Amino acid sequence: MKAFKFMEKRIDPFLLMILTDLARTLAEDPGLEVDFALHSYYDRKNRRVTISSFWDRLPDERRIDGMKTDVYLRAYGHAHFTDETAVARFLSRQDRSDHPSFAKQLLALFEEHRVARLAIQDRPGMKKAFMNRSEWLRRSYRHRYHRHLAQGEWTDALFCGIAIRLEGRPIALKTPLDAWAPRVRAAAETLPHLATTEEVCALAEALAKNVPSDWPDMTAAYVTILTAEDKADARSLEKSAKALADTSPAEKMNGEEDAHNERFSTWHREQKQAGNHFLSFDLNKGAKTDLLGTGERKMENGDQAFATVYGASRRSDGNRYDRLPEEPKTASDSPSGRDAPYGAANRHAEAHDIEARPPSAADAEKYRALKAQVAPSVRTLKRTLQKTLEHRMTAPRHDLHAGRLGKRLVRIATEENPRLFFKKSTTDPMFDAAFYLLVDCSASMHDKMADVQKGLVLFHETLQSLSIPHAVTGFWEDALAAKDRVQPNYFLKAVEFERSLLPDSGLGLLQLEPQEDNRDGFAIRIATERFINRPEKHKWLIVFTDGEPSAYDYADNGILDTQEAVRMARKKGIRVIGVFLSDGNGRKAEAETLKDIYGTESLIVPSIKDIPEYLSPLLRKLIHRTAAVE
C-alpha cells in the first residue's frame, strides 16, 4: 500500500473517459490516451494528449469546458493542422539564441491561436468553449503580468502582455515594455491572417530576435509545444519533479528498509525511530537545501494535524506552532481589522472619488434622445406606482379607539376593550426610501455600456418623477497602477443623492465608460459605508455587473469577499440586489456564481438589449415591496 494514497490527486474516471473518447474521435486515433500534466500538449509519437492542471482551480462546468478546449487544441488542432517539421526547424534555430524559452512559448502561443481559429471554422460548436477559455486565460495572464512587472521580469511580463492582447483585450505596456506596443499590435493584427505553421514560426522569430540581450530569458512556463525530436521532454519534466520530491540532503540510510503496510503510524526513511504518531507526518518532501544551514526543521507531533485543520479555513501566519491558537477572526471584527477595515482581500485597496465633469452640449443632446426612448416606460411605471402609493396612504386604518365608527359592532359584546373606530390617512403619498446604484465599469462592459446607460436613465427618470432620492456610481480598479502594496479604485459619482431630484441631474450617467478591473467586494463595502448614514428608513443597493469580480490579486478570493460584503450590508439593514448583465451567450456558470453571491435577491438579464425591459418590473417590485411594509 502506498504511504500517502489519500493525498494523491484523484481523477474522475467518468470525466477521463469522456475526454478520452472526445480526443480519439477528433484525432481519428482509437489508441490515443488522455492524461493530466502541468502543461497541455500533443505527443504524436506516444499517442498521448495531456490536459493542463491550470483548469483544476476552476469549479464545475468551467473546469470541464477548459479541459475540453485543451482536447480541441491538441487532438484536433495540433493533430491536423500543425507542421511539426517547421516547429523542429524553428526550435533548433532558437537553441542558439539568448531567449530560447521565450521564443518557444511565443511560438506555442501563436500556434494555439491559429489552430483554434481553424478548429472553430471546421467545427463551430467549439466556439463557446473557446470564448470562455479566452476570458479565463486573460484574467490569469493579467494577474501574472503585474506580478512579473513588480519583480522586474521583463521577458515574462512581455509574454503575458502579448497573450492578453491576443485574447482580445488591449493593454498599455509599461516602461520598459512600452516600446514594444507597435510590434505587439502588429503581431495581433497579422496572426489571424496566417495560414501555415511556417508563417507562425516566422512571426514568432521576428518578435523574439528583438528582445534585448541584457534581459534574462523567461523564468515561468505557461505553454509548450513538442516536436518529434523532443517528445521525451514532457515525461522527463514529470520525472524530474518526482526526483526533486524524493531527494533530500539528509544522509541516505544504508541497507534495505523495512516495508510497512500499516495505516498508522507513518514510516519515512528519515525517521530515526518508529513511534505512535497519531496524525503526525514528519516528512520533508522536496527539500533540496539545508534550512538555515543545519538541516530541515524538526517538527512536533501536533504540527501536521494543526496545519491541516487550520489551513482549510484560514491562511496561517506560519509563526507559532507550539500551541493551538485562538479561533481566527475576520478583519472587520478583530483588533487587526483596523489594518483591513474593508476585508483582508482589500487590505491595500484605496478609494478615490471622481466628480462628474460639467456636461457638454453633445451630452445633453444624447441624454434627451435616451430620455425620449424610455419616456413611455417611465410614464406607465409612474402611473402604476402612484396608484399604489395613493391607495396605501388613503386606505382606512382600522381598530382604533377614536375616529369614525366602524361596522363590526358585535365586538362590544365579545371583547372587554373593543376597538370600534377607524380613520382615513391624509398623509402625502410618499414613502421613506432611497436607492443606490453601483455600476461595474470594467473593460468587459465595452459592448454593454450603451444599453446600461439607457436602463439607468429609466431608473433615474422614474425615481425623480416620484421624488425618491437616489445615487448612481460607477466603480473600477486601475489595473495598470495596481501593485502589491497599493490598488487604486475609482468611484465616479454620476448622480449624487443631494442633486438627484434636480433637473438635468442625470447627464452624468453618460460619463460612465468601460475602464479596467472590478473589485466588487470593496465597492460594496464603500457604498455601504456611505449609504448607511442616510436618513431614509428603507435602503436599496443595486449592483450592475457582467461577470465575476476580477482585480489585482483578487481572482482567488474575489467571490468570497463579495459574498461577505453583501452579507455585512444586509446585516446593517441595506437590501442588496445583484443584476447580472449577460451578453446573450448563456454564461450559465457566471449566472450561478451571481446567485451564490446575492442569493435570491438577484436578477439575470439574458441579453443587453433587454436591460430596460427587465429593470422596469424590478423597480416596480422594489417600490411595491417597500410600500407594503410602510
Describe the structure.
The chain is built from 17 helices and 13 strands. It is 42% helix and 12% strand. It is of the alpha/beta class and 630 residues long. α14 packs parallel to α15 (558-571). A 7-stranded mixed beta sheet has the order 4-10-9-8-11-12-13, sandwiched between helices. A 3-stranded mixed beta sheet has the order 1-3-2. It is elongated. The model is unreliable at 1-8 and 231-337 (pLDDT under 50). The protein folds into 3 domains: 11-235, no CATH class; 370-394 and 430-629, Rossmann fold (3-Layer(aba) Sandwich), CATH 3.40.50.410; 397-425, no CATH class.
Q: What is the tally of beta strands?
A: 13
What is the approximate shape? elongated
Report Rg: 31 Å
Low-confidence stretches: 1-8, 231-337
Average pLDDT: 76
Distance between the termini: 68 Å
What structural class is derived from the secondary structure elements?
A: alpha/beta
User: Which bin fits the share of residues in helices?
Assistant: 40-55%
Q: Any idea how many domains? A: 3
Order of helices and strands: HEEEHHHHHHHHHEHEEHEEHEEHEHEHEH
- The number of helical segments is 17
| Percentage of residues in strands | 5-15%
Main pleated-sheet profile: 7 strands, mixed
Record the strand order, biggest sheet: 4-10-9-8-11-12-13
